[in-house]
Design a protein that fits this description.
Blueprint (H helix, E strand, L loop, with lengths): L11 H10 L12 H4 L9 H8 L1 E9 L5 E9 L6 E7 L14 H10 L2 E5 L11 H15 L1 H4 L1 E11 L1 H15 L7 E5 L10 H5 L8 H12 L26 E6 L5 H13 L4 E6 L6 H4 L4 H18 L2
Parallel strand pairs: 3-4, 3-5, 5-6, 6-7, 7-8
Antiparallel strand pairs: 1-2, 2-4
């Protein structure tokens, strides 16, 4: 058995939630669990009900993804949207292996309502069936489509941000790098919510979160191996698949990065913020003490989750008010 290093303690309120989650979530995700996990959690609220409660309408489009293959996107806007308003391009989480374009959409819906924004969320294809570069290239293709159709979607192209959580945070960072390098759509900000950035399994935080919490070291290796196969951890991995490998982050839009102090992604997220600062890019970083991966979604009423969401919402509000 792997030896887990000493780690910061979980927030007491979150530790109680983890005890409940232990009966619902596997302690570690291995490849054979992927089909079961794709069936979703029992009792999940249908997306139609979530949107109706928020007062948001949805229009689906089928667009060309990587290689010209067709993928789906959903456009979400407040009922009665006048436009043009800010645009939010959303890349969902799920470790590169699970989830759909509505996974974790609650925070984005709050921005849609608060700022009369229009969100576009993309159904990128999942690993291992569609390994790198399919996920990030699907995301980039959908971002280009969003920018090209901004006027008809009711989006102000001068106020387009990209946002994603976990694997979606890594894809958002990778997509922002592609947009920079291909001189693609201009983004005014990137919201990287506990992003999955580094395939190399070499940080202290990945060793600390081994067999504990949510999305531990084994789960992370499963996700990266599905995406990269035998290339994981080698020199044959692009910066768009694993943005932590980028050595030049200049020319990127301002970033908001947050994570918990007790999650695998902590050290790579802190390092990415530092690299952005070194490149002269503005970044706001929050490391929430005692937080496990995704605690804002799994324990939204906890005091620390409320603080996390408020800080994120405030950054988005300041950015979109410019």
């Amino acid at each position: 058995m792997a030896t887990t290093l000493a780690r910061p303690p979980f927030d007491p309120e979150l530790e109680a939630v983890l005890a409940v989650l232990a009966d619902m979530l596997p302690p570690a995700i291995t490849p054979e669990m992927i089909p079961m996990l794709r069936q979703g959690l029992p009792g999940a609220v249908p997306i139609e009900d979530v949107l109706a409660e928020a007062g948001v309408e949805r229009v689906d489009h089928t667009i060309p993804g990587h290689g010209g293959d067709l993928i789906d996107v959903s456009v979400l806007r407040k009922i009665g949207h006048a436009g043009p308003g800010p645009g939010i391009f959303h890349t969902h989480g799920g470790g590169m292996i699970i989830g759909d374009r509505f996974t974790g959409i609650g925070g984005v819906l709050a921005w849609v309502v608060e700022h009369d924004a229009v969100a576009v969320t993309v159904e990128y294809r999942l690993a291992p069936e569609f390994p790198d570069p399919y996920p990030v290239e699907d995301c980039y293709a959908a971002l280009v489509w969003t920018a090209d159709h901004a006027e008809e979607l009711g989006i102000d192209p001068e106020r387009l941000i990209i946002a994603g959580a976990s694997a979606g945070g890594g894809l958002a960072a990778g997509t922002a790098l592609l947009a920079r390098d291909r001189r693609g759509p201009a983004l005014v900000g990137q919201v990287l919510i506990y992003p999955m950035l580094d395939d190399r399994d070499a940080t202290v935080s990945t060793a600390q979160v081994d067999g504990v919490g949510v999305w531990d070291r084994t789960s992370n290796v499963t996700g990266w191996s599905a995406l990269l196969g035998d290339r994981r951890g080698t020199d044959d991995v692009s910066i768009y698949a694993a943005p932590a490998r980028a050595t030049d982050l200049s020319g990127l839009p301002p970033a908001f990065i947050d994570c918990g102090s007790v999650e695998v992604f902590r050290d790579e997220d802190v390092a990415y913020a530092t690299s952005l600062w070194h490149a002269g890019v503005q970044a706001e970083l929050h490391v929430w003490p005692g937080g496990f991966h995704g605690f804002d979604q799994m324990a939204p009423q906890s005091a620390i989750a409320q603080a996390m969401i408020a800080a994120r919402d405030a950054w988005v509000a300041r950015l979109l008010a410019r």
